[in-house]
Amino acid sequence: MTDRRTLVLASASPARLGLLRQAGLDPRVQVSGFDEDSLSAPTPAELALVLAVAKAEAVAAGLTDGELVIGCDSVLELDGEALGKPADEDEALRRWQSMRGRSGVLRTGHCVIDTANGRQVSATASTTVRFGTPDDTELAAYIASGEPLHVAGAFTLDGRSAPFVEGIDGDPGNVIGLSLPLLRRLLAELDVRITDLWA
Q1: Which residues face 120 on adjacent strands?
Q2: 73 is catalytic
Q3: 100 and 134 in contact (C-beta within 8 Å)?
Q4: CA quadruple 78, 80, 81, 85: dihedral positive or negative?
Q5: Which of 3, 26, 65, 73 is catalytic?
Q6: How far from 121 is each of 65, 115, 139, 189, 190, CA to CA, in Å?
Q7: How far is CA 104 from the centre of its chain?
Q8: Distance CA 185, CA 155 (A)
Q9: Are 179 and 110 in contact (CB under 8 A)?
Q10: Which of 69, 26, 30 lies closest to 198, judged by CA?
Q11: Are 158 and 15 in contact (CB under 8 A)?
């Protein structure tokens, strides 16, 4: 048996870290510090991917011990527009007023870099989210909690907005921040079994 590879998560997201730990992985967290506003792309799916790649590459550039680096970035696609984290409470309220009773697509870009050989693989996972119809009082309380300012699309499945989501079509982990099935496939492309990374 070979020594277990070191996994590095290029993200400050506690939700992504939690998903990986629940799946038996124990990555080291190293935030990229990459300026997300410096990049653009023609579509929300492409934007999520280029941001994920940029984060992974920024962290991988400083590593030399053969680590596996995971970069992710999520955006909500609504009416063809990419919605990241809202800038302030007013924007979060406008988002929810436009989202309620409708569906959007949560796009999460994933990039894995093997620093042992420089190989890199990436893909975007997409999950349709059907939003409920929280009333204005419920929205005010949710926005006052501060939670929507820290998450793409101003909502999350694993927090206070969970009651405002009627359902999803696709991988729930992807909406939380990372698709474990997609991660397994990307690792396999790098000849790494996810089970070999279990802590």
Answers
A1: 113
A2: yes
A3: yes
A4: positive
A5: 73
A6: 19, 12, 39, 7, 8
A7: 15
A8: 27
A9: yes
A10: 26
A11: yes
Retrieve residue 176's tokens. Answer: 């939380």
Nearest to 56 by CA among 68, 45, 66: 68
The pair of three-digit structure tokens given for residue 172, joined into one six-digit string: 């729930």
| Residue 104 neighbours by CB distance under 10 Å | 23
Q: How many helices (H) and strands (E) does the chain have?
A: 6, 7
DSSP result, 17-44: HHHHHHTT--PEE------GGG---SSH
Q: pTM here?
A: 0.94
The CA R_g of the chain, rounded to the nearest whole Å, is 17
Q: How far apart are the C-alpha atoms of 92 and 69, rounded to whole Å?
A: 31
pLDDT in tens, 148-177: 999 999 999 999 999 999 999 999 999 999
Phi, psi at 76, each rounded to 5°: -100, 125
Supply the DSSP string of 99-168, one letter for each residue. Answer: HTTSEEEEEEEEEEEETTTTEEEEEEEEEEEEE----HHHHHHHHHTSGGGGSGGG--TTSTTGGGEEEE
Q: What is the pLDDT of residues 37-71, one digit of tens each?
A: 788 999 999 999 999 999 999 999 999 899 999 99
Cα 173 to Cα 10: distance, rounded to the nearest angstrom? 17
**Residue length, the chain?**
199
If DSSP codes are grouped into helix, strand and coil, which group holds residue 103? strand
